[in-house]
Amino acid sequence: GAVENIKNLLKTDDKIYFQNGTIKFTGLKRSIDLVSVDFDYGLNQRVLHNITLSIKQGEMTALIGSSGAGKTTLADLIPRFHDPSDGYIYVDEVDIRKFEINSLRRQIAVVSQDTFIFNTSVWKNIAYGTPKVTETEIKEAARLANALEFILEMP
């Protein structure tokens, strides 16, 4: 069904257009740095041009702009749903392309504009797609999202 199609889309083992790195990503220690990043969808229409920014570990960063400004595209570069057309992304001073894509994506939570919530518990929604996750890890994810207190107060 639809869920299986999404899983196959995110599976990277058979994707020839992404070069998979060899370093296992175990979590952000210092920062994510974008340096002179450009991106286009191959239509000669540049969506991002010369983006340089640093996101420090533990800091909250908001991407603000009008519809179509490239916020989602920029966010999609971090889990490598796309690679930049030009420029570099460094995670803890390592080129992001050197990391195994699956290990990188296991450490990243993406909340898009069009989020779907399953008709089940909050805990199962948080754990979705991560079959071996522990209750402690789920609670930590909720805490990092500043949602744990709110969730614990729910009936």
Describe this structure in words.
There is one protein chain. With about 160 residues, the chain is of the alpha+beta class. The protein folds into 2 domains: about 1-105, P-loop containing nucleotide triphosphate hydrolases (Rossmann fold, 3-Layer(aba) Sandwich); about 120-150, no CATH class. The protein contains 6 helices and 4 strands. The protein has helices at about 1-10, 70-75, 100-105, 120-125, 135-145, 150, and strands spanning about 30-40, 45-55, 85-90, 95. The protein is globular and about 50 Å long.
What's the arrangement of secondary structure elements?
Blueprint: H1 2-10, E1 31-40, E2 46-56, H2 71-77, E3 86-91, E4 94-95, H3 101-106, H4 122-127, H5 135-144, H6 148-152
